[in-house]
Write a structure and sequence with these properties.
This protein is an alpha+beta fold. It has helices at 10-23, 74-82, 96-99, 107-112, 120-123, 158-162, 196-207, 221-224, 230-233, 248-262, 273-285, 305-313, 340-348, 361-366, 375-388; strands spanning 4-5, 27-30, 46-49, 56-60, 65-69, 86-87, 130-137, 142-146, 170-178, 180-181, 185-192, 213-219, 239-246, 267-271, 295-299, 318-323, 328-333, 353-358. The protein folds into 3 domains: 1-182 and 373-403, Uridine Diphospho-n-acetylenolpyruvylglucosamine Reductase, domain 3 (2-Layer Sandwich); 185-285, 2-Layer Sandwich (Alpha-Beta Plaits); 287-366, 2-Layer Sandwich (Alpha-Beta Plaits).
């Protein structure tokens, strides 16, 4: 059985990593263990369990920021924010829906994986809301960056570097991030019965309008039928969803404008707050619309989404749905074959990239999980890794084999 270390203070965290760096050991770094299937299998000798580093350490609603220890659960953070009618605008998904086990994940994990939900098209990714941190590098050195305000950076913005590094450069002990007022009202305009190409055009029209759309997704008929929202599952075909949020009168006006704009595409329905929240939670967490096989996330220009999906599904069987106005294509395969070369060829043809989000350990070992980098970028990435973690202490192999 692999030995587990569970620090409960910064000093214990520093001691564990300094020991590992000096003794030739390495760590599989875990928070709440909801994203163990995201990335390659880690090639480590020990487990570093951060579960003891949890709790909100500072929250200033009037200043729009929160500071929390890295393993603080998203559920705890959301509960605190609800008391002040606030939210995390980057809308972190609950990856346990895809991977099973746990619930919600931690704030450190959401930032380390740079996760964001449907609101990314309006609010940005996790890194855009990440203000600062305290961390321990793979060298066994404490360092920090940023603070609790947006304009608080001199020199290198290390927060942007650690967001999306999957714990391979440093272990964050504490993080600070922006919070924002929650919307008073949320409504969703549904356009029914569009094929994928028509949906891309409709979403582009909505996003290009002055109606401040905060979510644009398309569920083909088989995906829509799986929704827990009766208006969606009972539509009898594909559903294209356009979300607007804000003060009540503004939301009502913008929904009316979108309805007038989009009625030329097909029949229109509208979801109010409760059903809207349920639908966008499903879209954010993704897994409920897909089968149990490998899952890919394809990032392309929004108008290319339908064409890429058509190319891939001509070669293999699977289910798809679209988020981010068509720029994010979720692809769930119905078999466990390695289709990575075909998928990446189709995506590369339009200048996009593909990430293997879920697969068994064997496939994640033999197939590049993240888009392979060209030579110069790969060399730069290796130099950055060597600067922070020269002995490969932290999550070795999670992003790139042998690193």
């Amino acid at each position: 059985m692999t030995e587990t270390l569970k620090p409960e203070t910064m000093e214990q965290l520093l001691g564990a990593i300094a020991w590992a760096a000096g003794d030739g050991q390495s760590f599989d770094v875990r928070g709440l263990s909801t994203k163990q299937g995201f990335g390659r299998p880690v090639e480590a000798t020990r487990v570093l369990d951060l579960g003891g580093l949890a709790g909100i350490t500072a929250y200033e609603p009037s200043e729009l920021y929160m500071t929390a220890l890295a393993a603080t659960s998203i559920a705890e953070i959301k509960a605190a924010l609800r008391q002040n009618n606030q939210q995390m605008s980057f809308e972190p998904p609950d990856m346990s829906v895809l991977y099973g086990g746990g619930e919600g994940g931690s704030i450190g994990g959401a930032i380390a994986c740079n996760l964001a939900g449907p609101r990314r098209i309006q609010a940005g990714a996790a890194r855009d809301h990440f203000l600062g941190f305290n961390a321990v590098s793979g060298r066994g050195e404490i360092f920090k960056s940023g603070g609790t305000v947006v304009k608080n950076v001199t020199g290198f913005d290390l927060s942007k570097l650690l967001a999306g590094s999957f714990g391979t450069l440093a272990v964050m002990h504490q993080v600070s991030f922006k919070v924002m007022p929650a919307a008073e009202k949320t409504r969703t305009v549904l356009v029914l019965g569009l094929d994928d190409a028509q949906a891309m055009t409709a979403m582009a029209a909505a996003l290009g309008s002055a109606n401040e759309v905060s979510g644009a997704a398309h569920l083909p008929a088989d995906a829509a039928a799986r929704s827990g929202v009766s208006y969606v599952s009972g539509a009898g075909g594909a559903v294209t969803a356009i979300r607007v949020e804000g003060p009540g009168p503004s939301v009502e006006h913008r929904c009316g404008a979108l309805t007038n704009m989009l009625k030329e595409f097909g029949a229109i329905e509208e979801l109010h707050s409760q059903n809207s929240s349920a639908l966008w939670r499903e879209i954010c967490d993704a897994g409920g619309f897909l089968d149990d096989g490998p899952v890919w996330r394809l990032s392309v220009a929004p108008m290319d989404g339908a064409g890429v999906a058509e190319t891939i599904l001509a070669e293999t069987e699977g289910r798809i749905f679209y988020d981010w106005g068509g720029g994010l294509v979720w692809l769930g395969l119905t078999n466990s074959d390695d289709n990575s070369k075909m998928i990446r060829k189709a995506v590369a043809a339009v200048g996009g990239h593909a990430t293997l989000i879920r697969a068994d350990a064997e496939m994640r070992t033999t197939t590049p999980v993240f888009e392979p980098q060209p030579g110069p970028l790969r060399d730069l990435t290796a130099r950055v890794k060597n600067s922070f973690d020269p002995k490969g202490v932290l999550n070795p192999g999670r992003m790139v084999e042998g690193v």
